C-alpha cells in the first residue's frame, strides 16, 4: 500500500525518500557516476567565460565532486555546499572544496538574501516537487547579476526501461520527471533572464539490463515513485523485463536515454 503522505503533486517522490536513498548510496555513488560527471562538466562549460564569482553555492552537492571542481575553477572565491542527504554531506565534507557544508532544502534555502554570485546545481533539482519555489529561492539568494546554472532531467528519461516494464506489468517502475515545456514556462516567468535553456539527450549503453538497474541502485536513483510495486520483483517479471528490453538493443548494447535540461539564468542588475 502506498503511504499517501509521500505522494506529491505530479507524482514526484517525497524529499524524505530522496534524502534517505541518496544517503544510502553515498559510498557507491562515485564509482558509477560517469554520466553525472559528464553532465556537470558540460554545465560548467556553459557558464559565461568571464564570470568569476566571489561566493558560490553548489546546490545538491552530493559527494562533492563539483564542489571541488568549482573551488579549483574559482580560486579567488569561497563556496557553500548544500545537500538534503546527510549521508552525501558526510562523504563530501572531509574531501573539502567548500567553506561550509550544509544540510538543506533547495525549496527553502538557509542563505541570506543576495548572498551568492553563482548557484550551480547538477542533476539535483529534478527531485524537487516545487520547482517554482527553487527558482524563487535562487532569485532571492543571488546577488544582482548573479547566475543560476542547473542541469536536470525531464520527461523521456529512461523511456526504454519504462516501456519495457509497461510490457511486463504496467506498474510504475521508473522515476517520473516534469516536461521540458514546464521548465521553459517556469524559467520564463521567474524574473531571471534566460541566457541558455535546452534539452539534450544523452544515450548510455549497457551489456544487459542488470548492469543498468544495478547502476541506478548504486546511484540512489532507482525507483522512488509513489505507486511503485512493493517487495521483491519475481523472477518471471525480471525475465519478462529482459525480454522486452532486448527489442531496443543496438550494436553498442542496450540503450538508456537521459533527457537532460541545461539552463543558465541571470538575475537582473
Automatic annotation (TrEMBL):
Catalytic activity, EC: 2.1.1.197
Residues in Methyltransferase type domain copies: 57-150
Coiled-coil parts of chain: none
Keywords annotated in UniProt: Biotin biosynthesis, Methyltransferase, S-adenosyl-L-methionine, Transferase
Enzyme class: transferase
Catalytic activity: malonyl-[ACP] + S-adenosyl-L-methionine = malonyl-[ACP] methyl ester + S-adenosyl-L-homocysteine
Cited PANTHER family: ARGININE-HYDROXYLASE NDUFAF5, MITOCHONDRIAL
Protein's name according to its UniProt entry: Malonyl-[acyl-carrier protein] O-methyltransferase
Source species: Pseudomonas atacamensis
Amino acid at each position: 500500500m502506498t503511504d499517501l503522505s509521500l505522494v506529491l503533486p505530479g507524482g514526484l517522490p517525497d524529499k524524505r525518500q530522496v534524502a534517505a536513498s541518496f544517503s544510502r548510496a553515498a559510498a557507491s555513488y562515485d564509482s558509477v557516476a560517469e554520466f553525472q560527471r559528464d553532465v556537470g562538466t558540460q554545465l560548467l562549460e556553459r557558464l559565461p567565460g568571464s564570470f568569476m564569482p566571489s561566493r558560490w553555492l553548489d546546490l545538491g552537492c552530493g559527494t562533492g565532486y563539483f564542489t571541488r571542481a568549482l573551488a579549483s575553477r574559482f580560486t579567488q572565491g569561497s563556496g557553500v555546499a548544500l545537500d538534503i542527504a546527510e549521508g552525501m554531506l558526510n562523504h563530501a565534507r572531509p574531501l573539502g572544496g567548500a567553506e561550509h557544508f550544509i544540510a538543506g532544502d533547495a525549496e527553502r534555502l538557509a542563505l541570506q538574501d543576495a548572498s551568492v554570485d553563482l548557484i550551480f546545481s547538477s542533476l539535483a533539482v529534478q527531485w524537487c516537487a516545487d520547482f517554482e519555489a527553487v527558482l524563487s529561492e535562487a532569485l532571492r539568494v543571488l546577488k544582482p547579476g548573479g547566475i543560476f546554472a542547473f542541469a536536470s532531467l525531464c520527461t523521456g528519461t529512461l523511456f526504454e526501461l519504462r516501456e519495457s516494464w509497461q510490457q511486463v506489468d504496467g506498474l510504475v517502475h521508473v522515476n517520473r520527471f516534469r516536461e521540458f515545456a514546464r521548465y521553459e514556462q517556469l524559467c520564463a516567468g521567474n524574473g531571471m533572464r534566460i541566457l541558455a535553456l535546452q534539452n539534450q539527450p544523452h544515450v548510455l549503453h549497457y551489456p544487459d539490463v542488470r548492469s543498468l538497474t544495478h547502476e541506478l541502485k548504486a546511484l540512489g536513483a532507482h525507483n522512488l515513485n509513489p505507486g511503485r510495486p512493493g517487495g521483491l520483483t519475481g523472477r518471471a517479471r525480471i525475465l519478462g523485463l529482459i525480454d522486452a528490453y532486448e527489442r531496443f538493443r543496438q550494436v553498442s548494447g542496450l540503450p538508456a536515454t537521459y533527457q537532460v535540461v541545461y539552463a543558465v539564468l541571470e538575475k537582473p542588475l
